[in-house]
Design brief:
The chain is of the alpha/beta class. The protein folds into three domains: about 15-60; about 70-295, ABC transporter transmembrane region fold (Up-down Bundle), CATH 1.20.1560.10; about 345-370 and about 380-545, Rossmann fold (3-Layer(aba) Sandwich), CATH 3.40.50. It has helices spanning about 5-10, 15-50, 50-60, 65-85, 85-90, 95-105, 105-135, 135-145, 150-185, 185-190, 195-245, 255-295, 355-365, 385-390, 405-410, 420-430, 435, 455-470, 485-495, 540-545, and strands spanning about 315-325, 335-340, 345-350, 370-375, 380, 395, 405, 445, 475-480, 505-510, 520-525, 530. The strands form three sheets. Strands 6-9-10-3-11-12 form a six-stranded mixed beta sheet, with helices on both faces. The chain has a four-stranded antiparallel beta sheet with strand order 2-1-4-5, covered by helices on one side. Strands 7-8 form a two-stranded antiparallel sheet. It is elongated and about 110 Å long.
Amino acid sequence: MRAVDPRLLQHAQAARGYLVVAVLFGLAVTGLILAQAALLDHALAAAALGTGATALGGTLVLLAAATVKSQLRRKLTGHCLRLGPAWLGGRQPGQIAATATRGLDGLDPYFARYLPQLVLSVLVPAAVLATVTAVDWISGLVIAVTLPLIPAFAALVGLHTRAQTRRQWRLLAQLSGHFLDVVQGLPTLKAFGRAKAQEQVIAAVTEQHRSAAMATLRVAFLSALVLELSAALATALVAVETGLRLLYGHMPYQAALLVLLLTPEVYLPLRAVAAQYHASAEGAAAADSIFAILDTPLPRQASPRTPVPDLRFAPILLDRVTVAYPGRDLPALAQLSLTINPGELIMLAGPSGAGKSTLLRLLLRFTDPASGTVYAGGADLAAVPVDAWRAQIAWVPQHPRLFPGSVAGNIALGQPGASRAAIEDAARLAGAADFIGALPDGYDTPLGERAAGLSAGQRQQLALARAFLRDAPLLLLDEPTAHLAPAAAAAIGNVINGPLAGRTIILATHRDPGPVGASQVITLDTHRLAEPSSRPAGELATAAAR
């Protein structure tokens, strides 16, 4: 048998038009496949070359769902960052992460299937109804009366589906957040023999999520039954009245046949859009959670025209400042008044919970005073642009955060353009040079998640090196030597009193400061400021090693 028989081609004139159309459609499909491959190739090549999201913008704009998800993720991340650590501290990061990842992935059915089907559910029934009415106005009237029943039933079922889906998504976010907490605290749970108990808690939350998911599916199946039954009854009604009129000769056969052929097509798009709504409900529920975050008002922004005081010369004054956290009976700081002169070394002492970290957060502008005013160089700090203000500050928190990347990249986090020599000098000042040199690739050694291969002291030394590298006039240290050995703590004390002398340094510790070389020793107790006292010059290591 030959692939092409010329004898058949001689008799193919009647089908020539159909062949041409079929070939053209095949070429169109081939063109779309080629375009898809080219887009995928461009996106992967740009990502491999590290050209960034800007180079991919023109490609991804052609992928509607991916673009929307990317935009929402960027907006969510940026808004959370602008809301600040004080807002994030009252949220569960696991829930936010689940919403931004798994939740937004559920938007694919919404954009790819539900929205196109929603448009078709309006256009197709209108076109078919107009055609049927033109052929037989009685059948068109019956369809027009029965047609609204489908969206009415779909809306009633959709309200219940929406409530069930929101509950399902809320339980999934709760499960994600709880699981993250358990994984992070697994050593503590194992040490106290509570791992099995948490396993039971996760099993209980998982069972609740399973029940919610099955309830949502049950509603989806029942809604499909209701819509199919409604559409079948409406179609049967049209068929009965058309058949009776055809039987008694009140309707032409050709018109009756056309009405019977088109009637199911009126209800089909409405049934389809209801099914796609259920498929996209999870993504829509996650989007509601995201928009709730995006609707959270941002802190008041300062005018960019406000001059930024230079902290190398400008003093900082706290005038009867009170800081309170929501849900707490007592303020973290109450009526605090303090003057911080340029170049001072100030020691904040007091027990845990006395407000030392809150004072540092206040200076970082992670939190705002409930009353009182903070002045910098005579200007209200609230009127100073926050980014320009933080550019003059280096900070070492109690629990430093290291990020996936090289050791050098983590040290240069606050000084991206720093040279390798400057990074190595900062590491030497922090006492980290020896253990970095022992790493497989030295400063180029990649750190995994939470820098799990390093000890707590090593992570703290890298955080200190990060702060020392940043040429900031104000240095905030929150328990900077808590995880260091006495010798390492003594070395940090020598650095603060030596190479870093001249910077304004505020050091918080819960230990008795003892004799230190500080111009002020401020003791915070029960959230109030005790009288500042002067101490004779001494070594920071005496306090840090206790």
